[in-house]
Amino acid sequence: MAKEKKEWWEWLKALLIAVGLAAIIRYFLFAPIVVDGLSMMPTLHNGDRMIVNKLSYSVGSPDRFDIVVFHAPEEKDFIKRVIGLPGDKIEYKNDTLYVNGKAYKEPYLEEYKQQLNDGPLTEDFTLLDVTGKETVPEGEIFVMGDNRRFSKDSRHIGTVDIKEVIGDTNVVYWPIKDLGLVE
C-alpha cells in the first residue's frame, strides 16, 4: 500500500512540474496566435496559426520589417509589420517606402502590386500627415499590414508603444500547407 501511494505521489509531482513548465513557457516565452482577418495578405492568411516569440522583446526592440503582435487600442491583439522605428521619418510616394529619405524595397508586397491595375497598393502619405508627428517617437514603432488597402494600422491608430508589443512571429504551423517561416 505504501509503495502504491509513493508511486501515485511521484506521478502527481511529475504532472504538476509539467503543467508548471508549460504555463511558464506559454506565458513568458512562446504563445500561439491565430491570424484574424485579411490585413496581412498575401504574407499571412485568415486562420493561419502561428507561434509568437515573446522572448525576443524582453531583450531588445523590434527590427524594421519584423512581423509583430501587439495589444491594440480596440482591446484585441493585432499582427502587423514594423515599418518605422523610433526617430524615423516615414513617407510613401508612388507606392515606394522612404525611411529618412532612403527608398526601401518591400518584396513581400510584389504579389499584390502585380495584381493591381487601379492605382497604388499604398496611397501616398507622410508620417506627419497620418500621426501629426515628424518622426516616430522614442519608445514607439510605426506598423502597417501587408494588405495596405484593407489594413487598420498606424495610419489609423497611430504609433504603437513598444511596451504593447507581445513579441514577433515568423512561424506558421497550421494549416500544414502553409507550414514554415514567413518573411
Automatic annotation (TrEMBL):
UniProt key word rRNA-binding: no
EC class name: hydrolase
Pfam families the UniProt entry points to: Peptidase_S26
Catalytic activity: Cleavage of hydrophobic, N-terminal signal or leader sequences from secreted and periplasmic proteins
Subcellular location as annotated: Cell membrane; Membrane
EC number, as in UniProt: 3.4.21.89
InterPro entries for this protein: LexA/Signal_pep-like_sf, Pept_S26A_signal_pept_1, Pept_S26A_signal_pept_1_CS, Pept_S26A_signal_pept_1_Lys-AS, Pept_S26A_signal_pept_1_Ser-AS, Peptidase_S26
Keyword Phosphoprotein: no
Domain Peptidase S26: 8-174
Membrane topology: Single-pass type II membrane protein
Membrane-crossing segments per the record: 12-35
Keywords: Hydrolase, Membrane, Protease, Transmembrane, Transmembrane helix
GO molecular function, one term: signal peptidase activity
Family to which the UniProt record says this protein belongs: Belongs to the peptidase S26 family.
PANTHER family: SIGNAL PEPTIDASE I
Annotated protein name in UniProt: Signal peptidase I
Encoding gene (name): lepB
